[in-house]
Every structure is written in structure tokens, then in C-alpha cells.
Amino acid sequence: MAVNWSSSSKGEIGMKTRTTNARSSQLLTPTKGTTIMKRTLSILITAAALAATVATTANAQKVAVGCQNLPSESQLRQLLVQAPEVNKPIGGLFQGTKMWAAVVNRDGAVCAFATSTTDPAQVWPGSQAIAKAKAYTANAFSLDDLALSTARLYTFTQPGHSLWSLGQSNLFNSEFLAPPSGQYGGQGQIAGGLIFFGGGVPLYRNGKIVGALGISGDTSCADHEIAKRVRDIANLNPPGGALVDDIVYSGPDAPSVFAHPVCLNTFRNGTKIGNEAPATYPFVPPAP
User: Fold this and answer.
1) The pLDDT of residue 2 is above 70
2) Is the distance from CB of 116 to CB of 166 less than 8 angstroms?
3) pLDDT-derived band of residue 33, with 50, 70 and 90 as boundaries?
4) Which of 36, 50, 131, 212 is most buried, by CB atoms within 10 Å?
5) Which residues neighbour 57 within 8 Å (Cβ) at sequence distance 6 or greater?
6) What is the pLDDT of residues 133-146, one digit of tens each?
């Protein structure tokens, strides 16, 4: 059926079309208020990004100052490779060849961490947190005139002794762990954590404490052997010398509040000490 388009109809349709287009144009064209809002938001985002950059730079500079007299990551790895070759044997399970190491400054912030192996996955992953916590502990409880290794805190923190439950005071922050193949890992941050067995030693320069070293990846006794060797090679010993905070064993040493248990295949300064005592548990034989 044909449609008869009159001039009147065409005019009305044309007017409606122009009105509709005008409204669409108004909807698509930003108003003055919208433009100002977008510009303001852009300025705020830029300012926030600049502030974050300044804060990050300031933090990095602060950490650099606190870490400048301590081993870097590459130096730490080199020290880990050298240490097992000094005054052998080391003892333990791996003779001290599969280790995580971490260094903190006097503030307790992580300066560097590394593994002794080229493939970090070949060292116990759980030892990364332990090494960082040992470094934090040794730094936290040592002074210029008192070098206190984590090995010497063992007895104090056992049930029935004066520092029992001390470990609950500074919990480790697992956000500051790095994947074996990853980066970051809490560098410049205080990871915290307290460990009370061998492997953590304070670090000194010119008679002043400057931070601490934590080692983990073997028995705690072997960890301590590597830690004191790394410190000695790096010339970061306490004023009293390399052995002033050495590990103490209640046998063969005399009874002491600083005593640490003997581990599996334990050596101290190249001399065999013994083995960890085997445990016995209640046993019920099967019914006949």
C-alpha cells in the first residue's frame, strides 16, 4: 500500500528529527561541570602518585643508610659459599651447603637475603622465614656490650624458664616472604619473628652493633656454625671476638642457662660433639 507523504507531515517529521538530534548531542557533549570534575580527579590522581613515589624514595634512602655497612645480596651469597669450607666439618644433614641467609639493620629491617645455591628452590622454602626471624631476634636482644646469639636464648625460652612465651611478642609477618624465583621479599621492611635456636648472630663494626645475620637450612647446630663463619669472614665480629656468643652444649660443657640441645651429627668449630638423643614414646603392642 502506498503512503501519501504530505508536506505538512514531512515538516513535522523533520522538526522531530532535529529535536531528537539536538537532545542526543546534548547528552553526548560533556557539560562544564563534568569537565571540571574530570580535571580535578586527574590532578588528585597525579598528586597521589607523586606522593607515593616520594615516600618510596625516602624509605629506600633511609634503608640504604641503615644497610650500607652490611653485606649486599651478592656478597651474602658469596659468603655462604665460602663458609662451609672453613674449619670443616660443619655437621648436620648437608654440611651447611644448602642455606638461606638474611641480614637486618639495627632497626630490624631486612637489608638482604640470599641462598647458597644458584637454584633457591633447592633450599628448604620454610627456611627463608626462619632466617629472617633469626636475624631479627639476634639484633633485637643484642647490644654494643652484649652479643647474644639465638642459640643462647634456647633454655631461657623453654617452659618453666624465665622467658617462656617470649616468642609471642613479635610475630613474623609472612607478607615479607619472596617466592624462590621472585623479587622483593620484604626488603626494607621489618618482618619480625622470634627464633630461639641456633643460626642467628649479631653483627658489629668498630665495636658497635649494626644489625644481625640469620641462617637456616640445616640442623640448628649447623646453622649456627655457618652463621659464625659468615660473620667472621665478613669481619663483623663482636668486640669480644668470634666465639664470644658461641653455642653452648650442656654436654660436654658444664650446665648453663645458655645451653642448647645437641643436634643430629653435631660439630662445633670442627670438633665432633655428638648426636641428638633418640626419643621414646608409649607403645601398645597389637592384640594377639
Assistant:
1) no
2) no
3) low
4) 212
5) none
6) 999 999 999 999 99
C-alpha cell at 147: 652479643
Instruction: Tell me if the bond preceding 202 is cis, omega within 30° of 0.
Output: no
CB 100 within 8 A of CB 123: yes
Q: Which three cell numbers stand for residue 60?
A: 629506600
User: What's the pTM value of the predicted model, to 2 decimals?
Assistant: 0.76
226 shares its domain with 87: yes
In angstroms, the CA 200 to CA 212 distance is: 7
Same domain, yes or no: 181 and 257: yes
Q: Is pLDDT at 62 greater than 60 in this prediction? A: no
Burial degree of 26 (CB within 10 A; 0-12, 13-18, 19+): exposed
Name the residue type at position 20.
Answer: T
Listed residue (286, 232, 274) closest to 249, CA to CA: 274
Strands 248-249 and 259-260: parallel
In a domain, 281, yes or no: no
Does the structure show a pLDDT above 50 at 129?
Answer: yes
Domain count, the chain: 2
Same structural domain, 49 and 105: no
Confidence (pLDDT) at 260: 97
CB 230 within 8 A of CB 215: yes
